[in-house]
Design a protein that fits this description.
11 strands, seven-stranded mixed beta sheet, 12 helices, binds S-adenosylmethionine, Rossmann fold, two-stranded parallel sheet
Length: about 280
């Protein structure tokens, strides 16, 4: 695979992460959903596994005094993203890093709670099965796997019309954040429906071109600008049709509940609450 197509998550991304906004990061409303499961685990003095180094989850884990592990392929990112935490001092003396690719995760530990934020969307679709398998073996029988991810619906498949996206934003959402209102439509505009991903090495220049041509104005382009490091990180974001995603999940987990935030993107970005199938 050419280097620019390699899915990765560089230190440059971690250093820019403070500029990323929801839905790239969990929103307040989404964190309210997640916190209910942190609380449940806390009543059992539980052990949590965070897939990646999401600062918001690490703060919640500290708040609820959970025995905290982060599984991250990059120690540098784990340390860099700690800088974005509110409870970084407490975290430095208590949380543990499992330095591993999620797909290769193999420890003797079993967790009461495993959480992930777009984690599965950071890997190619063909690796979803080994990812789900590795996670499932680390969850206790009565534990929860709570994961926020993107999915598409059949209606999303139609190619987005860029002029309509922009016109709708200007008519109905003036003064709002273009990324938060229309970011998923922009993904849709650049989506590769064969590979089921958006390739940021094409998306970022694509946005620049739309700006250059005057289709996006300065303010709209600026709202999308924070995603620029995705390009040099060689990042792709994968998403499946919801029914295909559910089928994959069903091999390893029972979906107990599909939680929804109050955010604009809630339909395409559900939070699944799952238990392991044995
Ligand atoms: C904040 S997290 C989760 C993703 C994030 N919410 C997003 O939307 O991009 C990103 C972290 O996951 C780590 N990561 C990415 N892919 C990984 C993989 N396959 N295995 C383990 N860690 C990975 C990165 O090193 C980074 O520190």
């Amino acid at each position: 695979m050419p280097k620019k197509h390699k899915r990765t998550w560089t230190l440059g991304m971690a250093k820019h992460w403070k500029k990323y906004k929801p839905y790239a990061r969990p929103s307040k409303s989404e964190l309210t959903v997640f916190e209910r499961y942190f609380r449940k685990a806390s009543r059992k003095h539980g052990r949590i596994l965070i897939l990646g180094s999401t600062p918001e989850f690490r703060d919640l884990a500290q708040k609820h005094s959970l025995d905290t592990y982060c599984a991250d392929i990059s120690k540098e990112n784990f340390l860099e993203l700690r800088k974005l935490m509110k409870r970084k001092k407490e975290a430095a003396s208590s949380e543990k890093l499992i330095h591993s690719d999620w797909i290769k995760l193999r420890t003797h530990l079993r967790f009461d709670l495993i959480v992930g934020d777009w984690a599965i969307n950071m890997i190619p679709v063909k690796k979803y099965n080994p990812f789900l398998k590795a996670v499932s073996t680390h969850l206790k029988d009565n534990g929860f796997f709570v994961h926020r991810h993107g999915v598409w619906y059949p209606g999303d498949r139609k190619k987005a019309d860029i002029k309509r996206i922009v016109a709708d934003f200007r008519k109905k959402h003036k003064g709002e954040d273009f990324y938060q209102v229309k970011g998923l439509d922009m993904f849709r505009y650049f989506w590769n429906w064969k590979k089921m991903h958006v390739d940021f090495s094409k998306y970022v220049p694509g946005i620049e071109e739309l700006h250059h041509k005057g289709i996006l104005n300065d303010a709209e382009a600026k709202d999308l600008e924070f995603q620029r490091p995705n390009k040099t990180a060689g990042l792709c974001a994968s998403m499946l049709m919801k029914k295909d995603f559910d089928k994959k999940v069903d091999n390893y987990f029972k979906i107990i509940k599909e939680e929804r935030s109050t955010d604009l993107w809630r339909k395409n970005v559900p939070i699944y609450v799952m238990k392991v199938k044995r």
